[in-house]
């Protein structure tokens, strides 16, 4: 065995060991995932991007709409906390400092940063049509954060761009590069602050989790099917930004309907 081969085997072994110790379980779905970065660092980086976004975007002034966003957000946040505490994930709560903002922007969009910083654009309100419809959107976006999909996606990017050996010290030794990867993963530097698309697996997972969270919060999960149907019908020739990162098709709506009986159990219990 030559030296080059030996080094490759050692590198592979170290990387495999590193990844194996970085596995975690997604709440509610039980899926195993690899999150290589401490969630505390994800939250720290998200705060930097979130503050920059708020500095360059106008917070909505419509009192009724703002109160609706904050009310729906707080109810879903309480549902998330209730679920995590009741199912052995209470440690997740230390990273959430909830905040909900409605931004003046005609683009139909919404997102949630790691740590619970949630932004809704006024452009999506005509499609949500009601507080329950809004809860569909906010539950879905909050589910991405609870499932740590951002960490998972960024971990994959760092493996490709930095390599396994560099990961352990990447945040300390290359903070600017790490922040750049975070910004690229979340797309916060773009004109409308839109996140890059999550994988189909992440989308389905956020659908399932979001449906349960909104049901626990007391919102009828059946509103989800109508919302996604409206999104699909209003896409036209050029899909809105929210649809570009959240593709809607018959299979997705079918998957929502398959989850519905379980979600309705939570909804009926909440009443």
TrEMBL record:
GO biological process: proteolysis involved in protein catabolic process
UniProt-recorded Gene Ontology molecular function terms: metal ion binding; metalloendopeptidase activity
CC annotations in GO: membrane
Domain Peptidase M48: 79-259
Xref: Gene3D superfamilies: Metalloproteases ('zincins'), catalytic domain
Highest taxon above the source species: Bacteria
CDD domains for this protein: M48C_Oma1_like
Necessary cofactors: Zn(2+)
Cofactor remark from the record: Binds 1 zinc ion per subunit.
Region forming the signal peptide: 1-25
Keywords: Hydrolase, Metal-binding, Metalloprotease, Protease, Signal, Zinc
Family, as annotated: Belongs to the peptidase M48 family.
PANTHER family: METALLOENDOPEPTIDASE OMA1, METALLOENDOPEPTIDASE OMA1, MITOCHONDRIAL
Protein name, as recorded: Peptidase M48-like protein
Species for this entry: Sunxiuqinia elliptica
């Amino acid at each position: 065995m030559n030296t080059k081969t030996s080094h490759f085997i050692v590198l592979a072994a170290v990387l495999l060991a590193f990844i194996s110790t970085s596995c975690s379980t997604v709440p509610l779905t039980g899926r195993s995932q690899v999150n290589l970065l401490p969630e505390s660092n994800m939250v720290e980086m998200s705060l930097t991007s979130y503050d920059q976004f708020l500095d360059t975007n106008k917070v909505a002034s419509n009192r009724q709409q703002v109160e609706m966003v904050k009310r729906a957000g707080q109810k879903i946040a309480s549902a998330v906390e209730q679920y995590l505490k009741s199912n052995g994930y209470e440690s997740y709560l230390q990273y959430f400092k909830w905040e909900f903002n409605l931004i003046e922007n005609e683009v139909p969009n919404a997102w949630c940063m790691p740590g619970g910083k949630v932004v809704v654009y006024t452009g999506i309100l005509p499609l949500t049509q009601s507080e329950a419809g809004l809860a569909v959107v906010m539950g879905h976006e909050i589910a991405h954060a609870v499932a740590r999909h951002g960490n998972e996606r960024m971990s994959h990017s760092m493996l490709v761009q930095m390599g396994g050996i560099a990961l352990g010290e990447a945040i300390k030794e290359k903070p600017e590069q790490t922040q750049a990867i975070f910004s690229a993963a979340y797309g916060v530097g773009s004109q409308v602050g839109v996140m890059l698309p999550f994988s189909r697996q992440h989308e389905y997972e956020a659908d399932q989790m979001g449906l349960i969270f909104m049901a626990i919060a007391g919102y009828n999960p059946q509103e989800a099917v109508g919302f996604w149907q409206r999104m699909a019908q209003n896409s036209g020739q050029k899909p809105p930004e929210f649809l570009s990162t959240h593709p809607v098709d018959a299979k997705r709506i079918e998957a929502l309907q398959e989850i519905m009986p379980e979600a309705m159990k939570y909804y009926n219990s909440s009443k």
